[in-house]
Amino acid sequence: MRLLPASATADARALLATRALRGFADGLVSVFLASYLGKLGFSALEVGIIVTSTLLGSAALTLGIGLLGHRLRRRAVLLGAAALMFATGIGFAGLRGFWPILLVAFVGTINPSAGDVTLFLPTEQAVLSESIAPRDRTLAFAWYNVLGSFAGALGALVAAIPPRAGFVLYAVVALIAAAIYRRLSPNAEVEVATATQPLATSRSIVFRLAAIFCIDSFGGGFVVQALLALWLSQRFGLSVEQAGAFFFVAGICNGASQFASSRLAARIGHVRTMVFTHLPSNALLMLAGVMPTAPLAIACLVLRSTMSSMDVPARQAYVMAMVPREERAAASSVTNVPRALASAISPVLAGALLERTSFGWPLIIGGALKSIYDLLIFASFARLRPDESA
After folding, report:
1. Could you give the 3-state DSSP secondary structure of residue 244?
2. Alpha carbon separation from 73 to 67, 77, 189, 332 (Å, rounded)
């Protein structure tokens, strides 16, 4: 198996490194976030509200980058995001009250999920797609997500460290990422004159994709990693250490499976790759929600993790290939904003459910909604293939 695409540039390798660093920090924080907030005296509903605020804030920032990104230098955007990440880690390490933490959660970069839903994503994806040959784009995005997943799994494994120390480590990671962003080449930039509007030619298809993507994210918001850890604790009494070990294994399976995505996409197309791997994983998610014991539930969740993210590199490459170069950052933002907004609503609902029952309703509802997404994306885009020469 090819370790990295042959056409990978120094910029591509740099972004793979920063994705791994951020994945480690996100994996670390997402596991102990809910339990830490609980120890501060917050209820399950208040934890859900804080998780929702992180997703809403990310949506607002990502939308701003999407609308203004064609007027901003990409390296400056990434450096600013790293500075905000540093401030977020310091803020969570030092604050105690609900309202101050809620504010930092909204304006900051804390990611309660195993996936990447922060403002780094649109700019990194746009630069990565242009730092690689078109034929290697899906493989590059597979590596981008695999490194994030593996590093997130490692972060989950060490999540037993004191939470405040974990937030300080989160801030340190931001400083390292900033040092890497400073070394990006001039090729990472797009001339402002080439993009007078955020989406001049690809608006229709981007909006259609965004509308369908939000259904998937609304379902995914019911099972973000922080709330899944809380459900495992309430339902089966799993400790933070045990949950961290589970998320480590799941993260390894999740990441390793994505290498098959590029080969599968080359054979059957991006959309079929997304749907044919996603539907079985959603069935396993719903099945985990009704399992009576921890070993059975965890077995379903681990098996699900071998398929649940195979759609991600195919989806990312598909979006980047369907739009011109100067509109890729905007397309990434606009397709991710509805995802973030939709996933920001469901954690509150999941938190309310978990406050009333330990039954796996969040998993069942999330899996059902994500299955609806699969059917819609297949019906709308299965026959529409991108031009891989651009």
Report:
1. helix
2. 13, 6, 6, 16
Distances from the Cα of 132 to the Cα of 13, 28, 294, 322, 355, angstroms: 10, 30, 43, 16, 47
Q: Which residue in 50, 114, 52, 119 sits closest to 82, CA to CA?
A: 119
Question: Nearest CA to 222 among 30, 29, 361?
Answer: 361
Tokens of 240: 């933070």
Position 34, amino acid: A
Identify whether the C-beta of residue 298 lies closer than 8 Å to the C-beta of residue 284.
Answer: no
Q: What is the pLDDT of residues 253-294, one digit of tens each?
A: 877 788 788 788 878 888 999 999 999 999 999 999 999 998
Between CA 368 and CA 373, with CA 369 as vertex, the angle to 5 degrees is 115
pLDDT band at 193 (very low <50, low <70, confident <90, very high): very low
pLDDT by residue (tens digit) across 202-244? 778 888 898 898 899 899 888 887 788 888 888 898 887 888 8
For residues 56 and 343, give the distance between their C-alpha atoms in angstroms, rounded to a whole number.
8
Q: Which amino acid is at 170?
A: Y
* Contact yes or no for 390/137 (Cβ under 8 A): no
Q: Specify the 3-state DSSP secondary structure of 73.
A: coil
pLDDT of 195 above 50 = no
